[in-house]
Design a protein that fits this description.
258 residues, alpha/beta
Amino acid sequence: MNIQTQNIKSLTWFCSVYKADDYIVDFINDFLNQTNCKNINLLLINICNSHVNPEFVNKYINNIIKFNKNINCINMAKDPGLYQCWNYAIKEIKTKYITNANLDDRHHPEFSNVFTNFLDNNPDCSVAISPCFVSKTYEKEYTGTDKEVWFMKNLGDEIFIRDMYDEINNNSMNYPHACPVWRRELHSKLGYFNSKEYGKIADYQFWLHLLKNGYKIKVVSNFPFYLYYYNYNSYGNIDNYQTKSLINKIKRNYYKIP
């Protein structure tokens, strides 16, 4: 199944819609609030039976699609896993640039414009990133100013493999984090997110794999263009024992640390 739209656009957001009852309306509003929203695509991978009230979520998505031709949805009865959803979505997308969008994160209205313009003007950059605001409470809209900031860097800074791991504190430093924008063509050259071997840090491994092969990650601005919801029960924040084991694998494979 190839996703078709009337106009060729440069960026597609993709999202795994899982247990979305409390988030789907705010998430769609976040997308629709993007400047020049009609020039961006959104692809939803809807895990239909994961919702508390599937009828509400599925009906809402169907109504949104009916009135927004740049929003598409693929329905799945069973959850194949987060990164399998991502990989499936990426294979369907035809735009030059792609970004994963989490249901509970929020974007500055200029997020899409700033990131695509940066990639257009920096052909040597494969992945564009920015710092992020962090909230430990759920936010319906993008807000910042008074919040903690993660991954602070300056405009044009380049991220290297050495930046992605803090050896002193034995801590991963996944700079692309929750909202990078990257070139879709990377996957035809480097493959997809390998959750079979790297589980819930498959994105972290992919960015390291990219850097190891000479591709560049650059910072679009020192301004936080998205708001990350630090949810203690989210996919990336549970089962710390498994995470430590996977990080050790990263250390052996990319940093030669036994």
